[in-house]
Model the fold of this input.
Amino acid sequence: MNPSERPQYPDDAIAEPFHKGRGALSNESSRYDKQHRIRTDDGWQGGGSEGSAPPAEDGEDEELPPLRTTLTRDATRTIIARNNSPDIGFDRSINPYRGCEHGCIYCFARPTHAYLGLSPGLDPYQPVERELQVTREILQVLSDFNHPVGIVTKNHMVTRDIDILSSMAQRGLAEVFLSVTTLDKDLARKMEPRASAPHRRLEAIRALSAAGIPTGVMTAPMIPGLNDHEMESILEAAAGAGAQRAGYVPLRLPLEIKELFEDWLRTHRPDRADRVLSLIRQMRGGKLYDSEFGSRMRGEGPLALLLSQRFATANKRLGLNRVRNRLDTTKFKVPDEARLVLSDAKRDTRQLRLL
Done:
């Protein structure tokens, strides 16, 4: 292979150098276990404790914790998950990945992924998505079929797919919610170590809204004594960035997450750990978690009621949730090229049965 014929990597990619090896004039080092990291800015450079800290210069490497990521191909036959929970406003969803790199200490999906032997998380945009683009391909398929989609994420990378999402939004087929847990950059770094920094999530809301995509903010989870005092500030910042809708959920601590979260509290916020745990119990009938439908998403008691009232008052003042964006489910249509593929697949299946 001539040097000019070697694969060219973009200037912003980190790639292994080429080496001569057995059976080839030149090979990539570790070519069967290749890892590239795309330079990006997730807002963690420069330190600072508040979300108002200025973002780093574009193109700088994100400052990731020293963790090794294991990527395994999954043989799941379907990526469509179905649920019948009365607490959730949809009955099916797509999780492009099993496991997540965000590493949020409060993640309610930890028990499921622990059962599977995977890391915690549920959000679609995460570091490896930059290379695999699984989420983007799913969005393109949904767009081709005029299938509506709602996205909840805490990653600025969602802005990469504005071209697809804005096209879908024009057809009433898309909305995006950004989860903003805190504006305190230091707290976010400790609770959500590999998700985008708070100001980057607000930037994502601004970019999505400017592109005509219905956008909302999830102030979740609200943790009494830790971040609940920020609810109004988060809603105000999101509304200022163009968010039209908002939601919140008090902290949920199912199964082993209770012990994990308590250990995290005593490590990173030892001065307030006992108070936070006491307030959580006051919102959960004396326990750290109550799994009852309905109350699990809102809590109970005076503290839960006060949180709900504060949320409603802030929404009214900021003009959030005045209208609900209803996605259009009437436009679904199988594209002609897809019909041909399906037709060929059925024909091949019939032929196989004859053999």
About this structure: The CA atoms of residues 172 and 281 lie 41 Å apart. The first strand starts at residue 13 and ends at 14. The beta strands are 13-14, 18-21, 24-28, 37-38, 80-82, 92-94, 149-153, 174-179, 215-222, 245-250.
